[in-house]
Amino acid sequence: MGIFSNFRKDKPPKNTNSVQFKRWMANKLNEKHIRYVLERIGNEEKIIGREGFISVVGDDLVVIADGKEKFRTPIDQMEAFEFLSLQGATIKGFDETEDRERTILAYYIYHR
Q1: CATH number at residue 91
Q2: What is the pTM of this model?
Q3: With left for phi above 0 and alpha for psi between -120 and 50, is residue 16 left, alpha or beta?
Q4: What are the pLDDT digits (tens) for 19-77?
Q5: Which residue among 9, 50, 63, 69 has its CA within the 20 to 30 Å range from the CA of 100?
């Protein structure tokens, strides 16, 4: 244990496939305001919503845009990673609203 061992309290779990990491990531994405949401199908990206937010509801991660639920996936079964620019996130999982596996990209609203 070094001097700085407890310096960073929000450090993510190392195993990105673990349930602890998925819950940590869902907590980090919770209440993020988003500018728009895209769905990736193959090599194409299509805008599926604008102006919304990401929320944790029970054991699900929910993306709301245009006043409608666009994506809902169980937290323990999703994969989520923030962009290197930290301007958004990629979320992949089984979407309960459309009953299929989906990959979405959510771009955050940047507040100056």
Answers
A1: 2.30.29
A2: 0.85
A3: alpha
A4: 999 999 999 999 999 999 999 999 999 999 999 999 999 999 999 999 999 999 999 99
A5: 50
Yes or no: say if 91 and 73 are a contact pair by the CB < 8 Å rule: yes
**AA letter at 80:** A
Quick check: is 37 in a domain? yes
**Three-state DSSP state, 101:** strand
Domain count, the chain: 1
- For residues 42-55, b (16+ Cβ closer than 10 Å) or e, as one string? eeeeeebbeebbbb
5-9, 67-71, 80-84: range with lowest mean pLDDT: 5-9
CB count within 10 Å of CB 108 equals: 20
